[in-house]
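[agent] plan:
  1. take the single chain provided in the ticket
  2. run structure prediction with default settings
  3. attach structure tokens to the ticket
  4. add a short note for the reviewer (M.T.)
[agent] executing step 1
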Amino acid sequence: DVEMPEMDGFELTQEIRRNPATAHLPVIIISGNNDGYAERAHEVGADLILGKPYSEADMVEHLHRFMRNG
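[agent] step 2 finished; step 3 output follows
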């Protein structure tokens, strides 16, 4: 989620990408406020940004796609 205490989702994504042990993991950023977030999500290395609300079926499909593509 973008809006978290202490460290927001963008900062967390940057940390994930900096760490060689986690850099390969897919990152989905979720936010109820998408204004301007898509560009920032791309800049920090997120694989996908989803707006709230999102359907469970959409999330499952994205997770399956990430699993298929490694």
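[agent] step 4 note for reviewer: The chain has three helices and two strands.
[agent] ticket updated
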